[in-house]
Task: structure prediction
Amino acid sequence: MEYPIRINKYVALQGWASRREADTLIEKGAILINGKKAQMGQKVDKDDVVELAGATKEKKYLAYYKGRGIITHSPAEGETDIEMRLKKDYGITDVHPVGRLDKDSEGLIILSNDGRITGPLLDPDANHEKEYEVLVDKNVTGILTNNFAKGVDIEGYMTKPAKAVKSEKNARKFTLILTEGKKHQIRRMCAACGYQVQSLKRNRVMNVELGELKPNQFRKITGPELAAFMKELGIKK
Result:
């Protein structure tokens, strides 16, 4: 399937309805894209979550460890993305990544089939915390952590204040908490301060932690953890 694709064609290719029937479902508000009612003629991208309102499918929320070298989605020829790994290794085909990690980064990414969480989780004004472990090419100084706390100019954009804490075990490593997610932001922030990132791992998204997961492993987000996650997103289970 080539993206972007018109919503009625997408629905037809999924086998949910004919294109004409899909148009009727859209008019009735029965087709949702990322939790919102689809509009006639709207196009769907690969990372969008499309749902048939009223369908009685189980909503799933997974914490997944994306390894280095794996694409979040939309891989080029010869590359492997998360959905390909899930299908091959676990037979899972009904969840999608919410957000992204670049190819050379690793760590936690949320997977779900609940389109309602996409907008709130990725909202740049929501200030949701994401925590990273960063290894750079030289010793971390107080100047670097202070720069992050004040905000860093990356090609004309001033980043929001971020909390950086030097590691006690490795002088070239620090943890960083961001409340935004510009493309390659941490690498660009470090470069602007004269550092090069050697490795980058995301350990937490809001209250959901990577924990003891290894690359290409996942666990279900359930119980109090899921309740707190949904509450912060402003979504009722």
